[in-house]
Model the fold of this input.
Amino acid sequence: GENVEQHPSTLSVQEGDSAVIKCTYSDSASNYFPWYKQELGKRPQLIIDIRSNVGEKKDQRIAVTLNKTAKHFSLHITETQPEDSAVYFCAATLGGYGQNFVFGPGTRLSVLP
Amino acid sequence: DGGITQSPKYLFRKEGQNVTLSCEQNLNHDAMYWYRQDPGQGLRLIYYSQIVNDFQKGDIAEGYSVSREKKESFPLTVTSAQKNPTAFYLCASTPGRANEKLFFGSGTQLSVL
Done:
């Protein structure tokens, strides 16, 4: 079955710097890769996603890149702000079925003012 | 905010006791899911339901039970057979059986007295 690893587990950056979180997956058939942000005590929210037929997707300060050959995808946050502080976790899934999601363990990002 | 409502926010269980976590959604979503979140681990699927009166075991169903008598409701019972119930429990839903857009509730923290 699918296995998703995520690194680093914690990340501290200075406000204004960039942050990069990387996930690797094992099942080459996986074709949908979302990223979720979970602020302390709040629900996880989808912030960006990418499908296997695309190499990169960008939404303002957030971007995701996918390398299908190496089976890894990364979240890039530029010009970080204190409100970016949260736990970020990735997932990989095959097809469109919610029960097939496999989640990474999460990265706690701290943006220092 | 609306969408998916989980209650209570905090719950304490005594040894040998069954407890029920509530999950209600007003999104008219067909599929609903229960995940368990432990520190340093990815979300793990407990049970899911794609349609009323039908549900399936996920990866860690032992010690848990669910029901889906109404489209809007998917309660999770943590039974006394679950020996390590302390965790954060997240309910989620998707619009259809084959739709990747997971919408999460705000979670219930269950602790053992």
Remarks:
- The mean pLDDT of chain B is 92.
- Chain B touches chain A through 25 residues (CB under 8 Å).
- The CA atoms of residues 48 and 67 of chain B lie 10 Å apart.
- The first strand of chain B starts at residue 4 and ends at 7.
